[in-house]
Design the sequence.
């Protein structure tokens, strides 16, 4: 198995970063769009893709613990290094907590979850009115919804810092930080 080295990241690292990263960006955008505008047709897609990304995010965390953290591509200032690590932690935790809180909100809210036609959690239909769904645990579902909402906006701030950092390293410092995450070899 090829692990990350200082000069080159493993294909697995690059692949998992962009698969999880681009999917999360898509989910943040569709999540806000659908909930702000009440576009209910998008909900099943958002929920299914959000659920599937949880497994890839878990694989990524396991890969990161086996692989260790990569050494900085260049001589970052200590404050930059600290900020980058805090942002990475927020992003990693969010890749796990966003799907989990979304699941809590939906499933404990009684709405169930289907992944492209495969029912993973059944909706909790009311006995009196089978057209209606009832919460399984109202308080926990509301807590999940609140985490999903506030963490969603926290991730957007963290991401702006993350992307600004990547662009600064590439265009201002001209170092190999972004190149390495694009799978290229960099000078030692
Ligand atoms: C256009 C969007 C993005 C760009 C340009 C970008 C760029 C980068 C770069 C250059 C690194 C390497 C940093 C280093 O070597 O110190 C990195 C690492 C990382 N990025 Fe991103 N990223 C993006 C989106 C995301 C998203 C959406 C997430 C989270 C869900 C994310 C999570 C991480 C994490 C956790 C790391 C630490 C290294 C690792 O675990 O593989 N990134 N990113
Ligand atoms: C990494 C995965 C995910 C991300 C980044 C994400 C992001 C978001 C964002 C930013 C919103 C808009 C803010 C809000 O109204 O809460 C949202 C809404 C929503 N998400 Fe997610 N989500 C993810 C996974 C999931 C999953 C797995 C489910 C359910 C199984 C889910 C269910 C929902 C629902 C039902 C809403 C609408 C809430 C409302 O209308 O009040 N999400 N999501």
Sequence:
């Amino acid at each position: 198995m090829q692990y990350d080295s200082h000069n080159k990241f493993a294909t697995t690292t690059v692949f998992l970063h962009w698969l999880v990263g681009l999917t999360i960006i898509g989910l943040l955008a569709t999540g806000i769009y659908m909930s702000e505008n009440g576009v209910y047709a998008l909900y099943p897609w958002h929920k299914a893709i959000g659920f599937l990304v949880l497994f890839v995010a878990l694989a990524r965390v396991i890969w990161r613990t086996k692989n260790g953290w990569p050494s900085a591509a260049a001589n970052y200032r200590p404050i930059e290094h600290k900020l980058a690590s805090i942002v990475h932690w927020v992003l990693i935790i969010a890749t796990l907590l966003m799907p989990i809180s979304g699941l809590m909100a939906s499933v404990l809210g009684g709405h169930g979850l289907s992944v492209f036609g495969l029912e993973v959690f059944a909706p909790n239909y009311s006995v009196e009115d089978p057209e209606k769904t009832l919460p399984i645990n109202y308080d926990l579902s509301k807590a999940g919804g609140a985490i999903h909402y506030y963490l969603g906006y926290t991730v957007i701030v963290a991401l702006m810092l993350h992307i600004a950092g990547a662009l600064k390293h590439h265009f201002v410092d001209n170092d190999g930080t972004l190149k390495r995450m694009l799978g290229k070899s960099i000078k030692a």
